[in-house]
From TrEMBL:
Keywords: Repeat, Transferase, Ubl conjugation pathway. Residues 290-364 form the U-box domain. This is RING-type E3 ubiquitin transferase. InterPro entries: ARM-like (IPR011989), ARM-type_fold (IPR016024), Armadillo (IPR000225), RING-Ubox_PUB (IPR045210), Ubox_domain (IPR003613), Znf_RING/FYVE/PHD (IPR013083). The keyword Repeat applies. ARM repeats lie at residues 435-477. It is an enzyme of class 2 (transferase). It comes from the Eukaryota. Its EC number is 2.3.2.27. Pathway: Protein modification; protein ubiquitination. GO terms for biological process: protein ubiquitination; regulation of seed germination. Coiled coil: none annotated. It catalyses: S-ubiquitinyl-[E2 ubiquitin-conjugating enzyme]-L-cysteine + [acceptor protein]-L-lysine = [E2 ubiquitin-conjugating enzyme]-L-cysteine + N(6)-ubiquitinyl-[acceptor protein]-L-lysine. It comes from Panicum miliaceum.
Length: 701
């Protein structure tokens, strides 16, 4: 198992049409090797021929040869285990191992050719795929020809099938080519991309012909193809592939699919039928021995998407175990053993099995949510003139529908804007430049909850772009966003509107304007108190941003922010313990900011129960940032609350041990605050105990 790379990131996933293979161990015995070969051949031969959108002729011939090879291997095993059984000779291992490597590559190549969502990519790389298929067929033929006589002559049937496999594989190695229909469709795509580069709209029939040829003639088909290409683009950018020659082609194909999705289809079709058909397909043989429950994360009991192994050898989903460790737990959830190290090693084997299982059911393995965040920042520039031209044409069409379309057209356009702006900086810039922000703000007043939801989500995505934030403010959208937090029809829309305020608060000028809106802070406090986890989280971070304005502290206190935050610390219900801990940490950070002002500190110190809980939190938390916020908060209480608060703090038995621990092993800011608070508490008690006019000596730490 390889160690994680220097950045601690998961290993790269296998790229399409890359064919890694592992040679079997030299010490392996012929029977288990033969059994593995039978499984590989059965996988390759089980591919449904109608699932091949490109390279149909060549791939179908390869599937037929895999079927012959499976029959040959079955005959060999039958002869080796029958009544007159002749054990396979040990020298057969070398030839069978070569065949094993070739079959691994054949299975991967055929799976890529039939992969849902990758059909357009395979079409544009059909010649390369055909070339790789010829090489693999040559390897199969060579491996069969070099098998010992004891294998080939295991029976008359085996000898005949070996001859057929060899003849067909050699012929395929010499003759396999991409289909003429594929070549015509690929030329059609290049023609459309050339028109994009010139800023010219392509002929709709040409685009439809390409979509028909790859089986993506619906909106959901285009979306599926686009999702694959987006993941491929971000994966390459994430791994430092900015100079990858394929990026221009990927960017152009993404623009083609965006244009088709936006312009050619009047409605967003239901993909349920397509998904049902994918699930109904016979799964590959490799899935037959897999127990799906064994691939569930022991923490969440959900299928792992990014499996990693901890020091005890147990495997968990990366996001789940990271939350577990971040919450202060230093034991293995399954075994209870103490973790000697917090290192998480990617479990490549488990990920491969999960990917194989899902792909056999037509479902791609979803990437972890946190992945590609850095790569998204690298999409600020388009990858080629075709990508830029195609997206601009699609965006112009969208703006026309948003501004002058029927309600049905506006609904689809709002969803397209939401989807388009999700993970591409250039797409966001195009939407802002074309004037999408005012029209999305206008749709906030729609009576259709779905339209309203799409508009808020689109504005959230655009608020991540500096030009989007500027357009939103200049269009008079601040009050509308605050209203959406308060009265949007759906909970998700209210939560997203709160997140928009967070991004806007990153600008001090916008922050001042928001804080002056009378309803802004009370609305966020209400959301933090009464919403579910995500709404509370968004409200807390937005409040934290707004409190950088000095005037906002008093408004937050008046709106009941301290009581709402105290509720999060004193046991307000959360969906999971991890979510509760996360909200508690945010609550302490926010209270620390509120307590920077005297009025805020007095409001916090007014509740002795809350102060006691804060001291307990300081001692319990394993997060260094949480301890720093806790120390800053308690120091502010001592500074602004005077002797009454210092006396209360001095009576709490858990405070001094927590402060001394922080002085010994805390951040520089935490050490400074903890040392000041210890000295002030000592000074307070020395002052009380010393006689009037006596010598007040305080031991400083």
């Amino acid at each position: 198992m390889p160690p994680p790379d220097e950045r601690g990131q998961p290993p790269r996933r296998r790229r399409m049409l890359a064919l890694p293979a592992v040679c079997p161990c030299e010490a392996i015995a012929p029977p288990p090797l033969l059994a593995s070969l039978l499984s590989l051949a059965a996988d390759a031969a089980s591919l449904q021929r109608d699932a091949l959108p490109a390279l149909r002729g060549a791939a179908r011939e390869a599937v037929r040869i895999a079927g012959l090879l499976h029959a040959f291997l079955h005959a060999v095993r039958g002869a080796a285990s029958g009544g007159d059984a002749r054990p396979l000779p040990d020298e057969a291992v070398l030839g069978l191992s070569e065949l094993h490597v070739a079959l691994q590559k054949l299975r991967l190549l055929l799976a890529d050719c039939a992969r849902k969502g990758a059909r357009l990519w395979v079409l544009m790389n059909a010649e390369m795929a055909a070339s790789k298929l010829r090489v693999v067929m040559g390897s199969v033929a060579t491996a069969v020809d070099t098998l010992p006589e004891g294998v080939v002559a295991a029976s008359a049937e085996a000898r005949e099938l070996a001859g057929l496999v060899s003849a067909h594989a050699w012929r395929a190695a010499a003759r396999l080519r991409s289909d003429p229909e594929d070549d015509r469709a690929a030329r059609g795509v290049r023609s459309v991309l050339a028109r994009f580069a010139g800023g010219v709209m392509p002929d709709a029939e040409d685009a439809r012909h390409v979509l028909d040829s790859v089986g993506a003639a619906t909106w959901s088909g285009c979306a599926e193809e686009g999702a694959f290409l987006e993941a491929e683009l971000l994966e390459r950018l994430e791994t430092g592939g900015e100079d990858d020659n394929d990026l221009v082609l990927i960017g152009g194909l993404m623009a083609f699919l965006v244009y088709c999705r936006v312009v050619l289809f009047d409605r967003i079709d239901d993909a349920d039928k397509a998904e049902a058909a994918a699930v109904a397909r016979p799964p590959a043989r490799c899935a037959a021995w897999v127990n799906p429950e064994a691939l569930q994360c022991p923490i969440t009991l959900e299928l792992m998407t990014d499996p990693v192994t901890v020091a005890t050898g147990q495997t968990y989903d990366r996001a789940s175990i990271k939350k577990w460790i971040k919450s202060g737990c230093r034991t293995c959830p399954v075994t209870g053993e103490r973790l000697r190290s917090a290192e998480l090693v990617p479990n490549v084997a488990a990920r491969g099995i999960i990917e194989q299982l899902l792909l056999s059911r037509g479902v791609p393995l979803q990437e972890p949510r946190s992945k590609h965040r850095c790569a998204v920042d690298k999409t600020a520039a388009p990858f080629g003139a075709a990508a830029a031209g195609g997206v601009r044409l699609a965006v112009a069409f969208l703006i026309a529908r948003l501004s002058r379309g029927t309600p049905k057209q506006q609904k689809k356009a709002s969803y397209e804007a939401r989807k388009l702006s999700k993970r591409n900086v250039f797409y966001r810039a195009c939407l802002v430049e074309a004037g999408a922000v005012p029209w999305l703000l206008h749709l906030l007043s729609s009576g259709d909850a779905s339209v309203q939801d799409n508009a808020v989500a689109g504005l959230l995505n655009l608020s991540k772009h500096p030009a989007g934030r500027r357009a939103l403010v200049e269009s008079g959208g601040l009050g509308l966003i605050v209203d959406a937090v308060n009265v949007a029809a759906r909970v998700e829309a209210r939560q997203n509107a709160a997140a928009v305020l967070f991004y806007l608060s990153s600008n001090p000028e916008y922050c001042e304007e928001i804080s002056r809106i009378p309803e802004a802070i009370p609305t966020l406090v209400h959301l933090a108190r009464d919403s579910a986890y995500r709404g509370r989280k968004n409200a807390l971070v937005s409040l934290y941003g707004l409190l950088q304005c000095a005037d906002a502290h008093g408004r937050a206190v008046s709106a009941g922010a301290v009581a709402a935050l105290a509720g999060l610390l004193l046991g307000s219900p959360a969906a999971t313990a991890a979510e509760g801990d996360d909200l508690a940490l945010d609550a302490v950070a926010l209270l620390a900011r509120i307590a920077e002002q005297p009025a805020g500190a007095r409001a916090v110190a007014a509740s002795s129960e809350l102060v006691t809980r804060l001291v307990d939190f300081l001692g319990e938390s394993a997060s260094r940032s949480a301890k720093e916020h806790g120390a800053s908060l308690l120091a502010s209480l001592g500074q602004h609350g005077g002797d009454r608060v210092l006396a209360l703090l001095g009576k709490l038995p858990g405070l001094m041990p927590a402060l001394y621990a922080l002085i010994a092993d805390g951040t520089p800011q935490a050490v400074k605050k903890a040392r000041w608070l210890v000295n002030e508490i000592h000074r307070h008690y020395e002052k009380r105990q010393a006689p009037a006019g006596g010598d007040h000596r305080v031991i400083r730490v």
